[in-house]
Each structure stands twice: as C-alpha cells, then as structure tokens.
Specification:
single chain, 719 residues, alpha+beta, 13 helices, 16% helix, elongated
Length: 719
C-alpha cells in the first residue's frame, strides 16, 4: 500500500471514531445518571448528594466525565449544611462501554474535597431499596486519586484540621485483589506519609474479612497497623497489631493534649487492638517511655475497654535517678526524689482501681503494700503500706532548713475542700522511721476520713528507748476547720535523741511529754493563733556538757542555760537533777508562771513568761540561784536576770535588763543604783523561797495564789 493510501485510511478511521464517539455521547443521558447516583447515595447513606452544575463529557483519547461543586449533606444538627464538598470530580470512562450506553469508570480524580467530621456524622445509615430501575453503570477502577483535601474534626477541645495533599489508591489485579495506597499531607503542623495495602473493598462489603497493612511516619514518629477487620460495614471484628515509635514522648503528648512539653525521652508501644470482648481494647500491651535520668516507665498487660478506660490489668514499673529533673519538662514542681524505683500491678473492677504488689524504693527507703481508689457518690482511698526503713527526707525536696521569712511556723493551708470531697482508710507501719535526726521504731499510723472528719488514731512508736502515742482529729466541715491534738511520750532518753540530731549537749535525761491542743483556722498559723490546751515536758537525771552550750545551730534554751549557769566556764559538765517546761495555752498565748524550772548541782533556774503564737512573739524571763557558795543573798553578787524576747524565728537574749543587777547589787549600793538593790532583794526572795522549783513547775497554777496573784512578772515588776 502506498503512503498516500495509508494516510487516507487512517484519516477515514479517525473520522469514523470521532463520529462514533459523538454519536455515543449524544446517545447517553448524563443527567439521568445524576439522578440515579443521588438516589443510590440516599438509599445507601441517608444523605443527599447534589451537583452544582451539569455533568460534562470531555472527549479525547481517554474520555472523561466532569462534575463540579458536588456536595453531601450533613446530619440535621451539624454545624454546617454539608458534610462533604468537592470542587471537581473527574471520571475517566472506557469508550467501548459508551458505545453500549454504559459508563465504565476506570480512573477517578477528586480535587479539593472539604470533609467535616462531627457528632457522629460519619455513621451512614442504609435507607433501603429506592425502587428505581438500575442504570447501566460499572466500575473497573484502576486508580482513585484525591488531591488537596481538607479534613476537619472536633476532638472535644476544638476543631482540628488535616491537609491531605495527595492520596492515591490503586486496585491490585485479580478478582480478589486488594488496594495499594499512598498519601502525603500535613497534620498538627507536621508533614506525614502513609503507605500500605488494604483488602478487596467489594469482598469486604459482601462480608469477607478486610486485611489492613499500613505504615505511617512524620518527623520523629513511626506508626504501623497490621491485621484485619472481620466486618467492614459496621467496623467490627477488629484484630490489628499496632505499633508506635517516637524519638520523644513529648511530641505525641502534644498532639493528643494540645499542650507543649519539654523533652521527655523516647516512646515505644506495641499492642493488639481488638473488640473480641464487645468493646474496643488493647491486648499484649508493651510500652516503654522516658529516660532513666528523669523518669523511665514500662507497662505490660491489657486494657479491655479503651473508650471507658476500664478492664485494666497492667504491670507498671518506673524508675528515676532524680525526679526533680522532670519539673522543667512538665512545667510543674516535683520533689527531688533520687534513686527512685516503683513497681505495681494496676487493676480496675467494680470496687474501683487497685495498685497491688506495690513496691517503692527511694534513696534508702522502701514501701510495700496496696492502694485502692473507688468512686461512688464520693471518692474513697484505701491504703495499707509497710516499710522496713522509711526516711521522710528521701521523699521531700532538699529545701534550706530554718524559718521561712519572719515566722517559724509555715503558712500551710488546711486542704479542707479535698478532705470534704473524699473518704479514706489508711494504715501505715514502719519498722524504722526517720524524722529529721530522730529515729522511730515500730511506727504505726491509722487514718480514717469520713465526710470531712479526719481522725488519726493511733499514731504511735518507740523513740530513743521510750514510747509515744498520739491522736489527731480534724473537722474540715466548718468554714474554719477545727483540730484537736493529743501526744504523750514517756521514758524517752533525751540525750540519745539529741545525739541522733547531731548534738552532744546532754547525756542521759529521761524525758516525758504531754501535749493537748485545740485550735481553729484555715491554715497552720491560724490554728496556732487560736490554740487552747497545755504542754508539759519533764526531764530526769542527766549530765549537761557545758562546752556544748555554744554548739552551732543549738537551741536558744540551751544557750539561756549556758548564760545563767555560773559554773559553765569552770566545769566541763553540769549534773542536772530535773528540768520542767510547763505552758498553758489560751487563745493562742502560751503562759508559764514559774513553769520553767531546772535543778542542777551548779544552779537552780526558774522561768516565767509568754509565747504569743499569734505573732510568735517571745517574752520569757529566767532567774538563777547559784549553789556551792555562790548562792544569791543580800550583799552578794547577783548572777543575773535573763530575758528572752524577739520571736520564735529570731529570739533575742538580754542579760541584766533591769540595770546593774549583775554587778554589785547590795543594800549598800541602793542609793548609787537608784534602789535597784531592793529590786534585787525581791528577786532573791522569789528564787530562794522555793527549794524545789521542778515540783512548783509541775504543779503550775494548782497551788493557791499568793497575795497579789499576778504571776511571776507581775509580782516582780508590777506589770
């Protein structure tokens, strides 16, 4: 065949094809297909599908049907009328099928869809058969391509948004072939990719299992899903192995919560997602997160109901070299607990949550036992804990010691609202309990909290060879909570107790303490400012080391004794026969009238005065009577009247405040000292009149009042 003839044949064939295509196009009623599709969608989903204009046919080697402004209606109470809007849909059709008045869609391109997910609008309902005749439409989809999609959803905290730049779905060959997909986009300000395969959609809609194999990634994070869905139409029969790896736990937490965190360490998670128990749950859970220098956590077990966060049976372990390092990452203050290890088995049930087989180690301390938490009308906390060695310093921040500001008592608020909202039953025992420098043996504390009424009874233990027992009640129901404290201790070796605290001031000295206080207020200072009750400390035979009076950080009372003792500079020790500190409190003022006493081989001391707990002010006076030829008498040297003023946080000593009493108070000096010698004689009478000041101090206020009856200072100074 000559070239001219071949060209003529080709031109004729092309003309014939064009004529056939035009004829086929004119023979197909595309508007009829719009109505058919709308009715089909309404029957399958209960939603209305609309087209913003006519469906056009673009001719070419691959003819395409084009529709623009396609929408799918939203639920009745949705935030906008359309759940889905699409700028443009382009469907490539097969030419031979058009000749048979069929539409065979081989490739579908969806441009700029806008999808809103809210209020369960993705749950589409089957409306049944429309009763309309079928339209000859077949799908032989070789590729589905979605471009520039926007997906929005409400997660309960606000509208979130994801941009899907490209999604390509390609069916695999064969009747049972599945789908391969690849997508890229942006979510939460992060670029992501998802790739993998899905099962045959037609087979899944016909009731066959729907296999899933997907892997997604974004910077620093990888997610994988592998398994199957038994029933795709109702999304049930899930059996999916999920995995999550993140370079830093802070990033997934930010995506979930919307809050920023500092670096927390890597995350590894694997689990099996299933609904075999009727609820969506996680089995074979294996999680690890964090770093050991801050906090490293592992968890293994099951979570049977994700939606209700119930059916939990998880073994948890955690450890930290220094928990305080986590404070900056979380934006909150945490105690600087060091060398912490914790393990527990977390379970929940009809009685609430339990942490059983609990084991905690922090520093040199250990705790074991069980904690429970349940919620009815009120939260209820249950705990039974035991320790072989418990040092409270291991669980507290290493804050500087000493008073805060100008007050010794901390301004600690009573957590009244918490006490009103929860009930509790707690029991804590410790073979050895370390409180600062003191060691308590066989310590026990039981606490009960009911409807705002807290009771600690008993609080007991052995300390320095002796024993103490106490009781505390706190009624948080009034606007100003009411507290009552009782504490009794006996046969305590005070010298041993001081040595445990780092002081060598006293050897021996068996002590007892009786404390009974009641107070009212919203914080500890207010409680003290309204306190009523009594405090009595008694001390038996002991030996005071005189050179220890000035020990660094020593208490002010030992320093008072060092000043008053005329033998402190000439002897290494002073033998103490007895000592008493006896106060009675009324409306926040602690008063002692000759209730402070000390008898020793060198000096007897009597003290009186007040401690005002409303502002922690001190006004205490101490008067000595020297022995061994140094006794005070008219015409002899007066050892001195020492007054303690200032505050509990900043006490201030003043010696011989009344003038020249320390230096030559005598009758002969009366004129030269303005009569102060007479005052010295009065002071002498007050001291020498009592040969047993400890007995007087113990019985403070029980003996008949002497004439004048104004107490020691009032008798002495007339004020």
């Amino acid at each position: 065949m000559r070239m001219k003839t071949a060209l003529q044949v080709a031109a004729g064939a092309a003309a014939l094809v064009a004529v056939v295509m035009i004829a086929a196009t004119k023979s197909v009623d595309f508007e009829r297909y719009k109505g058919y599709l709308s009715e089909l969608v309404l029957a399958e989903t209960g939603r209305t599908l609309t087209f913003g204009g006519p469906v056009k046919l673009r001719l070419g080697l691959v003819p395409s049907l084009i529709a623009e402004k396609v929408t799918l209606s939203n639920v009745a109470d949705g935030s906008r009328p359309q759940m889905l809007t699409i700028e443009r849909v382009e469907a490539e059709v097969a030419l031979p099928a058009l000749l048979r008045k069929e539409i065979l869609i081989q490739r579908l391109i969806v441009s700029s869809p806008d999808i809103l997910l809210e209020k369960g609008n993705w749950r589409l309902t089957d409306q049944g058969d429309t009763g309309k005749a079928a339209t000859p439409t077949r799908f032989n989809l070789r590729e589905l391509k979605i471009k520039n999609a926007k997906v929005q959803w409400d997660d309960g905290t606000g509208i979130r948004q994801m941009a899907l730049h490209k999604l390509v779905v390609v069916p695999e060959q064969g009747a049972a072939g599945g789908l391969r997909l690849n997508s890229v986009g942006d979510a939460f300000g992060k670029y992501f990719e998802v790739a993998g395969s899905l099962g045959n959609l037609g087979a899944a809609l016909a009731g066959k299992p729907f296999p899933v194999s997907l892997k997604g990634s974004m910077p620093g994070t990888i997610v994988s899903v592998e398994g199957s869905v038994a029933s795709l139409p109702d999304l049930s029969g899930l059996d999916l192995k999920v995995g999550l790896q993140a370079d830093d736990l802070a990033e997934p937490l930010r995506l979930v919560s919307g809050h920023g965190f500092g670096s927390l360490g890597p995350l590894r998670l694997s689990a099996r997602l299933n609904d075999s128990g009727g609820a969506l749950g996680l089995g074979d859970l294996d999680l690890s997160a964090g770093r050991r220098d801050t906090l490293f956590v592992t968890a293994k077990g099951v979570l049977r109901d994700l939606r209700r966060f119930s059916g939990i049976d998880v073994a948890v372990q955690a450890e930290s070299e220094d928990l305080g390092r986590l404070s900056s990452s979380l934006g909150m203050s945490l105690p600087a607990l060091r060398a912490v290890k914790m393990a527990a088995l977390l379970r929940d049930g009809k009685d609430g949550w339990t942490a059983s087989d609990l084991k905690v180690h922090a520093g040199g301390s250990d705790i074991a036992g069980e904690i429970g938490l349940s919620q009815g009308k009120r939260w209820n906390v249950r705990a039974k804990l035991h320790s072989t060695h418990l040092d409270l310093g291991d669980f507290a921040s290493k804050a500087p010691s000493g008073p805060a500001g100008d007050r010794l008592l901390p301004n600690a608020a009573i957590p009244a609202q918490i006490l009103r909202d929860i009930d509790a039953d707690l029991e804590v025992t410790a073979d050895k309990l370390v409180l600062g420098g003191a060691t308590v043996q066989a310590a026990t504390a039981k606490a009960g909290l009911r409807h705002g009424m807290l009771t600690l009874d008993p609080v007991a233990g052995g300390i320095a060879g002796g024993r103490f027992e106490g009781k505390l009640s706190l009624d948080s129901r009034p606007a100003q909570p009411l507290a009552a404290l009782r504490l009794d201790a006996a046969e305590v070796d005070l010298g041993r107790l001081l040595r445990e605290a780092g002081s060598d001031l006293l050897h021996g000295g068996q002590a007892s303490l009786n404390l009974a206080l009641r107070g009212r207020g919203a914080d500890l200072r207010a409680m003290a400012a309204s306190a009523n009750g009594s405090a009595l400390l008694r001390l038996g035979n002991g030996e005071v080391r005189n050179r220890a009076f000035g020990w660094a950080g020593g208490d002010v009372f030992s320093q008072v004794l060092g000043i008053l003792n005329p033998l402190a500079q000439s002897r290494d020790t002073t033998q103490v026969t007895c000592a008493v500190m006896h106060f009675r409190l009324k409306d926040g003022i602690a008063v002692t009238d000759r209730g402070v006493a000390l008898q020793s081989d060198g000096v007897d001391v009597v003290g009186s005065g007040t401690i005002d707990l409303r502002d922690e002010g001190l006004d205490l006076g101490f008067t000595p009577r020297a022995k061994e030829g140094l006794g005070l008498s008219v015409g002899s040297q007066l050892a001195g009247f020492t007054r303690l003023r200032g505050t509990l946080a900043a006490p201030r000593l003043s010696v011989d405040e009344i003038g020249a009493a320390k230096t030559a108070l005598s009758v002969g000096a009366a004129a030269a000292t303005g009569g102060l010698s007479l005052l010295g004689e009065l002071l002498l009478d007050k001291v020498t009149a009592d040969s047993e000041p400890c007995r007087t101090a113990l019985a403070m206020g029980t003996a008949p009042a002497k004439k004048g009856g104004g107490g020691f200072f009032e008798d002495l100074f007339g004020r």
